[in-house]
């Protein structure tokens, strides 16, 4: 593939508060392990796969930036050309972009959220973006069904839960243009659609089963203009994207209005319509300002017309964002399970990955869709199902680990039972601890015999 | 033997469910009344369904279509001019033995809506199975078989699928509906898989830039198509349940506005409506003059084939020959050599056309006489019309028996009703409606009826009869000047009233008129929808911040506060005040209480808000009374308070009830039910304070006096005053002015209560 003239910005976030206690000063969100490698690596390798090797990674907070930068230079030194930029915490995605926007020079900018785990090729989005000459192209994918799909323990509860409505998205009949977008939680009662846009397309498909994957291709000039002019915009998703969607097609439509004659009002309406369609479908003009070849009324020329497009990922593609603890568990489970091709590991005949250096005691079973990293030791009669266990963990005898993620250097003493939980690094679980749906922050010690359910345990 | 067996076999099959359904003959309900006034003044004299559409009464088209789709029984519901409809049907081919279906008329004179009509039909219990519901002004050539089959199959699977609505694709332009049919566009949401209709809106407020759709629509469906490009054909396949639904919901009047929306919104018993989209066939309803014109042209252009003028479908239509360019001519017309007939025009039999006349895009009926140099464009001229020399007609409807004298000009959108005569050289202004009938004086907005006068076939209005008879006596055009207040409107030797348009309707006249939409309006229309979108930005940013926001640790910088609420509350105060003022003009207090209560519920306010607003109104009343000194002011206020104390007390008292009903859960924590009561009393004091400090500063010296007066009259209780004082204890010095002012009163209260306590002991 030749150079696509795309620049890539990866928004890697910082110490996201809603992921506590998993993230901490020592472990920013970008470095959270998914199948024992940082979540950011999935995005970086995805981009590498599309031959996008010049990246800017934006991290919130100096310390986090140092950590992320250190890891990237170690892992990708020879493969990618990455610049890590630190922005103050809490500036928002738009703020983060604003601080680096002056470095952008390419025609188009691909903006990827650092917590995205997907196998949708970014090149496809970039190509769609170019083909339509859009100002923004968004990746949409099927909403993941939240919660462990096949866990026996909480199965009953999950069934009652309806799939989360991530976004409400309006598409044109060809499913190429983005006409409306709202976040499920944002919509209190009514979905408010812009009549103008509906009138322009005639038919709008409203989907509730799609999710905005936070992978966008922007036309650079437009993005920079918006960032400059709308200095209150803080978020791509909240401010910039809605703004672009709202203002799209504006000039085309108003131009149509001027061409209406008295005779055969019917016919003129048809013509208007055709003209509009032809503009709408028109194939990618090279630059943004040129996208009005049919503009007859010059007084409208200064007004921009633009299109917001979508790339809808095939349903078979995996796409998830690590933006909640639930998502963290889900993604870890999926990457060694149904989306195992993402992990980059080769699975054994038992459909699991056990590092050769790992030691298993007698009568210990490690089921399918499990991962056991290097240097970890399991005692006798242990049982591990659908779980990820990190490096150098010491696990005693008679330990049950189901549907859980255990990070590095964790000590688990005899007789513990762990279900649906996340155990961070350097945690010590003393004897006969029972955890169900818990999160244990780094370095925490759970005293022997204690039982916890749906709790978040962390050092004060 | 074999035959017998076969019969038995057939019988046993018939017992099967599906067979039972199919054995019920297909029935249709034809509403021969549009239940609106759009075709006035013509419909004062003849029912809409009998008006000629390309020289054939509209009902013929509908009946012909029903015949073609295999309907076996038709129930024609007539209301206005029912006798005319019945007489017509009696004479028509449809009631003759050769007809393929039976036509039964059902008559009712008190039905004012389609809902009423269906209720009457239900009571007759003539409908046994699925039926086609259609209005007598619908033109179609669609094949119903597939829609019927789909409807039946759905019904079998899901007994709640009671109706299938026929829709048609139309152009998505925002102008299409307006330019073609003169109606607003319809907004529908349809499930792409099942074709279930989940949202229907035919009155989209053009001033709103947003369409609001209930989020719950998406609760069950992951994908919904929102259509702006569909046209409602007003042909429905209904199950008998529809009739009983109309029975159960006696307030349903309009088929779409009430029934369809009601079913979708209220989710009554889970009944569902489905849609069937037709693609290549034609279906449209004549709703107003504009659609009358559009559909006439469609017929001439043969979109409605086989329902076209030269096809021998209608028993009573005479032979018409089709020439090139869509010119239809009856064989017996008399046409001058120099006359020119343009494209898409029909000339009825027995019509004569004079020299140098030009007729384009028009329909001319039977037996018309057109003089020399007549120019007709885009007009619908019915039967036996006489148009003298040099008349110019542009986009007008001219009914039977009209006589236009030489040099008359009809501007676009003119409607001349039956037998109107227009004098020489008169120009009838655009959008005028002229009728021999005087315009009904009072327009009851609720009444949506064609003129329901059974004996209206003949003109009998006494004031005009004399004129008409005198006209008949003297048929020469140069008849003496008729200086009559009526005739003067349509010129010398003219007969007819020019109807004035009702207030507010004139604005809308161009929408429904047969004339083309003025260019200015078109531009305005297309612009109306797309104002500068940027303006809406602030508006939108008010939407609550999403959950994702926290996920990304982002926040929007736009906090506009609760500006919306503020507007609400002042509105509410104003409304309460207005209601209260009605009470002054003699409305009984009970009614006022009722009205305020309903206001309270609709604005989602508490009782305390009501008291506050009411109290404000009372005080204002007192302030408005003329006064020169403080004591006079006090007098007038005291008078008002005394007068309205019952009303105020009602609210202060009813708060108690509310407390027991609503607040119990929340307020119990704060010290019992009484607290609610207290709350609203404090609200009164706070409001009072507000009045004194903001609206009427002259009141402030009287604060304490009035406060004690309120206490005296038992409107305020001492605990309310005391807790007000303690509430104010922490406030700024500036806020404390009134507390200080009433200090002595409060101390007195405190002492009094202590004494009381002592007494108790």
Task: Please sum up the structure shown.
The complex is a heterodimer of chains A (460) and B (761). In chain A, 26% of the residues lie in helices and 27% in strands.
Describe the fold and architecture.
The complex is a heterodimer of chains A (460) and B (761). Chain A is an alpha/beta fold. Chain A folds into two domains: 316 residues, Spore Coat Polysaccharide Biosynthesis Protein SpsA, Chain A (Alpha-Beta Complex); 110 residues, Hexapeptide repeat proteins (UDP N-Acetylglucosamine Acyltransferase, domain 1). In chain A, 26% of the residues lie in helices and 27% in strands. Chain B is of the alpha/beta class. Chain B is 40% helix and 17% strand. In chain B, a hairpin with a 2-residue loop joins strand 2 and strand 3. Chain B is elongated and about 110 Å long. The N terminus of chain B is likely disordered. At the A-B interface, helix 3, strand 11, helix 6, strand 12 and helix 8 of A face helix 7, strand 11, helix 8, strand 12 and helix 14 of B. Strand 11 of chain A pairs antiparallel with strand 11 of chain B. Chain A: Belongs to the eIF-2B gamma/epsilon subunits family.
